[in-house]
Amino acid sequence: MEITFEYIKMKNFKNHADFSSNMGAITNIYGRNGAGKSSIGDAVTWLLYGTDQMGSKLEVKPIDQPDAETAVTLKILVAGKEVLLGRAQNKTAKYFINEVPEKATAFNEYVETLFDKDLFLSMFNPIYFFTQNWKEQRAQVLRYVDEPLNSEVFAEMAEIQAKLLQEHLKKHSLDDLEKVHKDRFKKRDVDYTKANERLATLQEQLEKEQEGKESIDLTAIKAEIDSLAKERDSLDEEYHKASAAIQKRNALLSQIDFKREEAMKQMKALESIKKEPIEENCRTCGQGLNEEAINAVKQDMKKRFSEGVERGKQLQAELNVLKEQLEELPEVEMIDTRKKSAELDERIYPLMAKRDAAARIGRLETEIWLASENKANVLKERNESQELIDSIKVFRNKQAEVMVKKVDSLFTTISVRLFEQLKNGEMKETFEIEMDGKPYSKLSTAEKIKCGLEMVEVLSRQSGVIVPTFVDNAESILKYTAPAGQLITAKVKAGDLKVEIKEEAKEVAS
Fold it and tell me: Where does the record place a coiled coil (predicted)?
């Protein structure tokens, strides 16, 4: 979209009581210092934004007429259509679009539809762009520059790093991937230190365990222990068998003695019954017993004797059974195996100590192997994260380089510094314009204007917006490439204010 100025009128604006002028493809304004050349540019920005050309607050009232109403009218051509913009201010501001009064919000909204404020000021005044904060300058230039595609950046990287990064970017964004692996690297770095310390501790323990010890054949030691333990168990088993047999024999002997004693008692009881006299008188009253009572006593004695005999036979039979059982038991000689067993234990215990030492060494060797594996795995993960972090750093650096090439390709004499490399190799965003190797701050007035005009050309080409450009102090430049839009110059020249209009192509102005 192209916007041109056709006519401007100022009333009571700074030192202009009443000024009006048409504008052409080139509008040259001449006059001595203080004649009001710069005020014409300020009138345009005051009308649009209420500021001077640098975007600062502006006092527009003439010093000698504080109560006068200030007014600026600007006829512009927008895409072939004429629009008349106006602003007047005494105590309050008034706005007009095509002479129709409008509220400030409606006026401002209309202006915003034409162009972005910073874009307009940067293209209208070649110096304005460089007065902004570097971040604003950077954002304004990059607004119209496409960020490099990943494929463009990968093409600039080493193949192995590009492939590594491409694979991981399938799951995470670059920023998230960097966060993940910076966190993992930090943790694995701590884990690696701990794993190293753990391995060193285990190796030290192994050295102490092996110190002064001969080489141990664990298999042979276990076989010898098993053999000796088997021999000792055999002795114990033999001892327990003999002990059990003796206990059984002694139990039978005890039973035989008990039965024999019981049988002797039974025999004595029978002898007693035999010798028992038959009482012919009652033991209670002393009266003589009749024959029937005496027979009853005799029958009782006979019965008790018969039962005693049967009981004696039974006891003898039981005694004979026990004797037979005793005869069937083999004679067992009790052998004291404790001494032999103790001798075997004396041989087993040192072997068990060696076995346990070998087992501890074996466990330590296993733990060392596991610790070594863990250390290697932790180191691998740590190095993988470091490799990815380095690849991301390279990606960002290459991305910055590609972006710089893209931006540099927009300019002819200007070079742009978008990044600065930190000591750790990372790129930090910055923005600095240079011309012929000199930073903008070191340029002369003429060089700054030339630099600004080239920036105007780039912003216009990239945004697709063409607006007039006002070059103040134009007398300081002998030759420069004119901008794509209207050119308005202000040059110091003896005499009163004078406006000269040229309707001609303007490849080069002088």
Answer: 192-245
Ramachandran assignment for 109, one of left (phi > 0), alpha (psi -120 to 50 degrees), beta (any other):
alpha
According to CATH, the topology of domain 3-145+439-509 is: Rossmann fold (3.40.50)
Gap between the Cα atoms of 414 and 271, Å rounded: 151
In angstroms, the Cα distances linking 293 to 23, 41, 273, 274, 288 are 177, 170, 18, 19, 10
Residue 293's contacts (CB-CB under 8 Å, 6 or more residues apart) are none
**Is the CB of residue 120 less than 8 Å from the CB of residue 3?**
no
Q: List C-alpha distances in Å: 205 to 194, 219, 363, 473.
A: 16, 23, 11, 85
Kindly report the number of other CB atoms within 10 A of residue 185's CB atom.
20
Amino acid at 333: E
Q: Are 35 and 498 in contact (CB under 8 A)?
A: no
- The average pLDDT across 444-458 equals 91
Q: What is the pLDDT of residues 163-187, one digit of tens each?
A: 999 999 989 999 999 999 999 999 9
Rounded distance between C-alpha atoms, residue 267 and residue 42, angstroms: 156
d(CA 116, CA 129): 13
pLDDT in tens, 426-449: 788 889 999 888 999 999 988 899
Q: Where are the domains of the chain?
A: 3-145+439-509, 224-345
What is the number of residues in the chain?
A: 510
